[in-house]
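Regression test case RT-17, inverse folding.

Input:
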């Protein structure tokens, strides 16, 4: 008689095999980021925003005149691109309260995620600016002046009207790009490059207009350490309010060009539904 292979005893319910782990979350793929530890989100956004301000504002404050607008723009863009690869899988790498608002309105993150991200962004921006200030203060005869703060009607910058326009338009542009690369889940390399280049492009176009805000946290970090003469803190409100408006505009534009549905966002209102339906009827 041939020997039989003994059967393995069944596992008790408490020892049932675990389901296979989910695939790693891609860069800035906020659609599938599921992290119960929101402290990690706060920490990631804090570190990432601190690096963004350290590199971007640091280029303005610590760099020499040969750096120019192109060098400053690349400093901001490359810093964001690098952080996309580092903290994207953790928090989505927003580093910008306006971007977080847009992703919240698009229901790509929940309110708790957004709240922790906002805290990390504002604290990280002040921390990054403090590091720049600490480095620069070691120079003999250094004067902090505007400290890279955003503003209007000073230092050769344009007026408030121009500031309002560029803050809304270019924040909306950044939001559209961010939503497209996160919702469509493009390759990690494409996502980081697309967002980083968009941020650099915004600086190239708008830096001589208002110093390029489009990020309330970055604007706060510079304003806190700026000299009182440019009234940076007094003008800070515009660089909080209008980028947030731009975030809403960006979500609306994204809905126009993407196949996502209005009903799947927080902008689902009777007024917008009626406007959409009338637009569809007009096209038909």
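Golden output:
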């Amino acid at each position: 008689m041939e020997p039989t292979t003994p059967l393995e005893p069944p596992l008790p319910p408490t020892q049932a095999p675990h389901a296979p782990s989910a695939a790693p979350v891609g860069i800035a793929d906020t659609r599938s980021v599921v992290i119960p530890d929101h402290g990690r989100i706060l920490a990631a956004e804090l570190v990432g925003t601190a690096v963004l301000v350290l590199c971007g504002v640091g280029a303005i404050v610590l760099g020499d005149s040969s750096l120019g607008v192109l060098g400053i723009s690349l400093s901001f863009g490359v810093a964001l691109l690098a952080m996309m690869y580092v903290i994207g899988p953790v928090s989505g790498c927003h580093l910008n309260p306006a971007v977080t608002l847009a992703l919240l309105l698009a229901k790509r993150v929940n309110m708790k995620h957004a709240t922790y991200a906002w805290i990390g962004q504002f604290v990280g921006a002040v921390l990054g600016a403090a590091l720049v200030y600490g480095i620069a203060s070691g120079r003999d005869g250094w004067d902090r002046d505007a400290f890279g703060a955003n503003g209007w009607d000073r230092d050769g910058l344009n007026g408030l009207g121009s500031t309002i326009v560029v803050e809304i338009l270019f924040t909306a542009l950044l939001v559209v790009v961010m939503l497209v690369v996160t919702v469509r889940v493009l390759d990690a390399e494409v996502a980081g490059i697309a967002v980083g280049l968009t941020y650099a492009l915004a600086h190239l176009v708008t830096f001589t207009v208002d110093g390029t805000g489009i990020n309330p946290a970055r604007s706060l970090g510079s304003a806190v350490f700026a000299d009182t003469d440019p009234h940076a803190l007094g003008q800070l409100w515009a660089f909080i309010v209008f980028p947030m408006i731009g975030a809403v505009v960006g979500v609306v534009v994204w809905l126009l060009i993407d196949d996502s549905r209005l009903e799947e966002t927080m902008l689902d209102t009777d007024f917008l539904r009626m406007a959409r339906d009338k637009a569809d009827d007009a096209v038909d």
